[in-house]
């Protein structure tokens, strides 16, 4: 007898349909899997045989051939264990073939018949909806992400429960609301930062408009502390952003058990990271750090210590909001709409420009240190700010700062203006700049003078205008004034270091 069921293969953050066909006949006992399986899929033979037998189901010595179609798509991982087992059971008549063909199955099997979590369950759930199937049968550990898709889900703990579902046709679970995040005891708060008026202003502007930010200053000045508190003042994720982030983390295998992504990601990779680790890559391309930071913050501490090739590879994703990883057999596009927050020392020793400590670096050392950062990369960073160390007297006597919750409320009110215009300011299309960011004659004259004085590029020119629009929104002003433009220009020129 021949039976077939549906499963899924991951291509980027999307899932494509895989048909699992099982041909079970009498003859010399054998078990073969065809259809371009990798080693993990080939090992399914032993897992499936033991899982079915240890579930109390009959597994007679038969000739079994399993085909994974289409044959030109490489099949990887243990996700096909459950669909292979169900296809075999349907071919043997243990479960109804017609019923089994109306679901999509994903899950890895244990030798006892238990079903373990798998990557990309939410993408498989979306696929089940698009294929017009009844829904998704998946491991219990993947239930929350699968339900986020809006598809009907049947979570199972083992093969016996799956067989029962296929025989009895119970109603699946359908949920449309999103669970609220659990409150944590303490999160980094902006009120914990003493002083640093100008850097905090830059952080607030960056959070409101989604602008990239570079902080330069000596060690211990508070650059990392500022960056790690940025997510606390960012607007909450929308439903669409929750879906996007959850799909990315699920595909990457970084989604905690029975959870979804409800907070904006903050990724802080080490400077030793490779280009594929930052951008994405591998034989079967997987998301890199810039994709894991999608809809969130990518923090690069000690930016000149990163490999220059890795930093330069970020230039195109920073502009386009996506990155394409090409291999000989496939090309995969990942989303990468992240907010870059970078920090760096002014020199290798870190004390150039320090008010109390002396720099020990030679001009050659400083030049080599700064050469990692190209002009085109710096041109894509909207805000440049110097972070001075805070005097100990100011730290001990400084009153508590404004809490993140209060700053976030201000940002949310100002962000509403951007939502009504259709774009956050950092992503205003070029064709809409003149309409959304109109400048008075006096502002135009000031901007022309600044462009000549600081040798700003056309990219910098547009980014200055967008930052000016953000500062005007922060003040609740409909039009950009000279004051807003002057403050934006204050953050734009590359700081002399």
Give the SSE layout.
Layout: E1 2-11, E2 14-25, E3 30-34, H1 39-42, H2 44-53, E4 63-69, H3 81-91, H4 97-100, E5 103-105, E6 108-109, E7 115-116, H5 121-130, E8 135-139, H6 143-147, E9 153-156, H7 159-168, H8 197-209, E10 213-216, H9 223-228, H10 239-251, E11 266-267, H11 275-279, E12 280-281, E13 286-287, H12 289-292, E14 297-300, H13 308-313, H14 315-320, E15 322-326, E16 331-335, E17 339-344, H15 363-370, H16 375-379, E18 383-386, H17 392-397, H18 404-421, H19 433-436, H20 441-454, H21 458-474, H22 482-491
Parallel strand pairs: 3-4, 5-8, 8-9, 10-17, 10-18, 11-14, 14-17
Antiparallel strand pairs: 1-2, 2-4, 6-7, 12-13, 15-16
Low-confidence runs (pLDDT<50, min 5 residues)? none
The total of helices stands at 22
Average pLDDT taken over every residue: 90
How much helix, percentage-wise, in residues? 25-40%
Instruction: Report the biggest beta sheet as strand number plus sense, adding barrel if it closes.
Output: 5 strands, parallel
Shape: elongated
Strands across the major sheet, in which order? 11-14-17-10-18
Total E-strand runs: 18
How much of the sequence lies in strands comes to 15-25%
| Category by helix and strand content | alpha/beta
Span between termini: 75 Å
Taking Cα atoms only, what radius of gyration do you get, to the nearest Å?
27 Å
In short:
The protein has 22 helices and 18 strands. The chain is of the alpha/beta class.
Notes on the protein architecture:
With 497 residues, the chain is α/β, with parallel strands linked by helices. The chain is built from 22 helices and 18 strands. It has helices at 39-42, 44-53, 81-91, 97-100, 121-130, 143-147, 159-168, 197-209, 223-228, 239-251, 275-279, 289-292, 308-313, 315-320, 363-370, 375-379, 392-397, 404-421, 433-436, 441-454, 458-474, 482-491, and strands spanning 2-11, 14-25, 30-34, 63-69, 103-105, 108-109, 115-116, 135-139, 153-156, 213-216, 266-267, 280-281, 286-287, 297-300, 322-326, 331-335, 339-344, 383-386. The strands form six sheets. The chain has a five-stranded parallel beta sheet. A hairpin with a 5-residue loop joins β6 and β7 (115-116). The longest helix is centred in the C-terminal third of the chain and has 18 residues, at 404-421. The chain is elongated and about 85 Å long. The model has no long low-confidence stretch (mean pLDDT 90).
